[in-house]
Write a structure and sequence with these properties.
heterodimer, A: 176 residues, mainly alpha, 2 domains, elongated, disordered C terminus, B: 330 residues, mainly beta, Phosphorylase Kinase, domain 1, 12-stranded mixed sheet, 7-stranded antiparallel sheet, 45% strand, disordered N terminus
């Protein structure tokens, strides 16, 4: 059903299916999903007037419960994300359970942090990428070669080694 | 109210030295004297004291805690930094090598220690640069990890570097908290002891690796002392930010790569920036900017070469350097 709603929002269903979806939407649960996906989409697109603060506590609670009930899928179908039009990007994302998890996490864990919606979308995208390609990264060759030259190593004793200890796989930002 | 220097800051310095410093005619000259001497004092403390404690590190919005133990015996340093959050990564530094244990990746990295705390020997030019590019202030600070501190602030005079704030133990001189602040006044990186213990004699076990032998399914990567050769590389940085001097140049073999990379290091006395130039290969995908706490890295392609610049400086500074790397004119 959720898959159908997502496809309906993406305009990927034929007339007969639209009819079936509309019937489905009469059930409370389907309507909730419909609304939920719209909030996510508005939030990702940075639509005016939509912010995580605007989400009601009730909605948050329901979303969390629904999220907890979702099975874990680690690899969202990348193909579909790539072929989606920019305008429907949010729906492709929402259609994958993993991405919904990411969005949920983004929306509910950073309520107090003044991140821009765009930053959130970027974050969601990078977390999704990390899920697609799980990897354990060690400190980069560059960091290891560089850090011994840093005056911080003398000033702070061995503390600056924390950089090597906290090294993780980081996706570089594209050139501005 | 900023006292020029609290009496505790120079405890242990000879009266003659204080008198000599105070005798400098211009305020700038005395400022550069104070800044360099103050740094020398905390550097010496970090090297020669025996201590252990819990360290909290903040990089952007990320927090991690570590256990740090440092021992100084027979004029030799040994040290262990153990991650208390997530995988139990640890870094053990001895007189001759640094070992990195990554249990999550099942990797041990062994690097020879080629440079040993070069800092105390700042050249006169670097000392002058410190005063020219940073405004140095020393004030009495509050308590950190239960100890009274002095606070030293290095405020940059241009936008090419971060502001540094150091809290040092007023009695021992050990750095207990350190902060990097960007031009917007945001703290981008901070480390602080939450507790510290000074030991006359530290148990040797505290600075030994937790692994007596490397598990058989781990990968050991070991760099040899010959992996760095000091030499003219034929590469030059045309737009070195003011105040940065070249402190090292040579060829370095980076793990897993056939061709050695040219490695140039620049420093303004407080931070260093490394420049790597290597043949470009298609398998290297990480082109662009990454920033982790106070560390920025920028990789770009320049014809048949890949230029990577990494350092404790604002992204714009690192980018400027990367984009101005070129071959020396013959």
């Amino acid at each position: 059903m959720k898959e159908n709603i997502s496809r309906l929002m993406d305009g990927e269903v034929d007339d007969a299916e639209v009819q079936r979806c509309v019937v489905e939407l009469r059930t409370g649960e389907a309507m909730e999903t419909w609304m939920c996906y719209h909030v996510i989409g508005d939030s990702l697109r940075g639509a005016h007037g939509v912010s995580v603060h605007a989400l009601s506590a009730q909605f948050s609670a329901r979303f969390r419960t629904a999220l907890a009930a979702e099975p874990t899928v680690l690899a969202p179908p990348r193909e579909r994300i790539r072929t989606s039009q920019p305008a429907t990007f949010a729906w492709a994302v929402a259609a994958t359970v993993a991405a919904v998890t990411v969005v949920g996490w983004t929306a509910f864990s950073v309520v107090d942090v003044p991140l821009t919606t765009n930053a959130k979308a970027r974050e969601a995208a990078s977390v999704r990428a990390a899920q697609v390609k799980p990897q354990v990264d060690v400190a980069s060759e560059y960091l290891l070669a560089h850090q011994e030259f840093s005056p911080a190593m003398a000033i702070q004793g061995g503390a600056p080694y924390f950089r090597a200890a906290t090294a993780t796989a980081v996706e570089p930002q594209p050139k501005p | 109210m900023h006292a020029w220097w609290p009496p505790s800051a120079f405890r242990g310095m000879s009266a003659v030295a204080v008198f000599a410093t105070a005798a400098f005619a211009s305020p700038l000259a005395s400022a550069q004297g104070y800044a360099a001497q103050w740094l020398m004092r905390i550097t010496q403390a970090a090297r020669t004291l025996n201590y252990s404690g819990t360290v909290l590190v903040r990089q952007g919005s990320r927090f991690d805690t570590f256990r740090l133990a440092h021992m100084f015996e027979n004029d030799q340093e040994s040290e262990k930094l153990l991650s208390l959050d997530g995988p139990a990564r640890e870094i053990v530094r001895s007189a001759t090598e640094v070992r990195y244990y990554f249990p999550d990746a099942k990797v041990v990295r062994i690097e020879p220690r080629t440079i040993r705390n070069v800092f105390p020997s700042l050249s006169p030019e670097q000392t002058a640069n410190l005063a020219q590019y940073y405004e140095f202030k020393l004030t009495a600070g509050g308590r950190v990890a239960g100890r009274m501190t002095d606070v030293a602030t290095f405020e940059p005079r241009d936008g090419m570097r971060y502001a540094h704030r150091f809290w040092a133990d007023a009695t021992t001189g050990l750095l207990l908290r350190s902060r990097l602040v960007n031009e917007k006044g945001e703290i981008i990186e901070e480390f602080a002891f939450t507790d510290v213990t000074y030991n006359a004699k530290l148990d040797k076990e505290m600075v030994r690796p937790s692994w007596t032998s490397v598990p058989s399914d781990w990968r050991v990567t070991q760099a040899g002392p010959g992996d760095f050769k000091s030499d003219e590389t034929g590469w030059t940085v045309n737009k070195v930010p003011p105040g940065f001097l070249k402190i090292s140049e040579g060829f370095r073999k980076l793990g897993g790569k056939r061709e050695p990379a040219a490695h140039l290091v620049f420093s303004d006395g407080l931070v260093a920036i490394s420049v790597f130039v290597e043949p470009y290969t298609v398998t290297q995908t990480q082109i662009g900017l990454t920033q982790t706490g106070g560390l920025a890295q920028y990789s770009t392609r320049s014809d048949a070469y890949r230029v990577t610049v990494i350092g404790e400086a604002p992204p714009a500074t690192v980018q400027q350097i990367a984009q101005s790397v070129s071959r020396n004119k013959p």
